[in-house]
Write a structure and sequence with these properties.
The chain is an alpha/beta fold. The protein has two domains: 2-14 and 69-112 and 128-198, Rossmann fold; 16-64, thrh gene product, domain 2. 44% of the residues lie in helices and 20% in strands. The chain has nine helices and seven strands. Strands 4-3-2-1-5-6-7 form a seven-stranded mixed β-sheet, with helices on both faces. It is globular, with a radius of gyration of 17 Å.
């Protein structure tokens, strides 16, 4: 039994924090897991910047409402889901993901949650499980699934390398050169063909 595990941001939808950085005019918020491998450190830094500027969940959700999936992403996902089971495994948060899942046709997503005060300030975040992408892939394998994984960032490497097949998608030159053993693709057509070749 195969199951495909996909990252969300940078693979199916644009990076939420980059979009919010542009909307809010705060360039520091452009930093993502492509730049900072330590997700905990990255999120705490982001929350500090939001507090400093008096920004909360509503402002970020206003930006997310304007984000559309990448061109071709929904069609890619629809075709993939017609062939096999697919789970999106993301380090984003349920409060961010919902409108994007609607635009993608409500695929299954495993992600985290934000702690939000009554005034809308984001006071913290709760990770579903430590090292969530790798841990989730290993858990799926423990119940009889062969995983095929794809992502673009440092935090995707664990699940990609732990799977029977793993692919980088629209990743950075640094991540690609650091991981020359991982096939890297730039188009949904290439990624779909590579996944199809692995389906048993």
């Amino acid at each position: 039994m195969d199951i495909v595990c996909l990252d969300l941001e940078g693979v199916l939808v644009p990076e939420i924090w980059i979009a919010f950085s542009e909307a809010s005019g705060i360039p520091e918020l452009k930093k993502t897991t492509r730049d900072e491998p330590d997700y905990d450190k990255l999120m705490r830094w982001r929350l500090g910047i939001l507090k400093e500027h008096g920004l909360g969940l509503r402002e970020i959700q206003d930006t997310i409402a304007k984000i559309d999936p990448m061109p071709g992403a929904k069609e890619f996902l629809d075709e993939l889901r017609s062939l096999t089971q697919v789970i999106i495994i993301s380090d984003t948060f349920t409060q961010f993901a919902s409108p994007l899942m609607k635009k993608l046709g409500w695929p299954t997503i495993f992600c985290n949650s934000l702690e939000v005060a009554e005034n809308g300030e984001i006071t913290g975040f709760k990770m579903r499980i430590e090292n969530s992408k790798y841990t989730t892939v290993r858990a799926l394998q423990s119940i009889g699934y062969d995983t095929i994984a794809s992502g673009d960032s440092y935090n995707d490497l664990g699940m990609i390398k732990a799977s029977k097949a793993g692919f980088l998608f629209r990743s950075t030159e640094k991540i690609k050169s650091d991981n020359p053993d991982l096939p890297a693709f730039e188009t949904y057509e290439e990624l779909l063909e590579a996944i199809k070749a692995q389906l048993s």
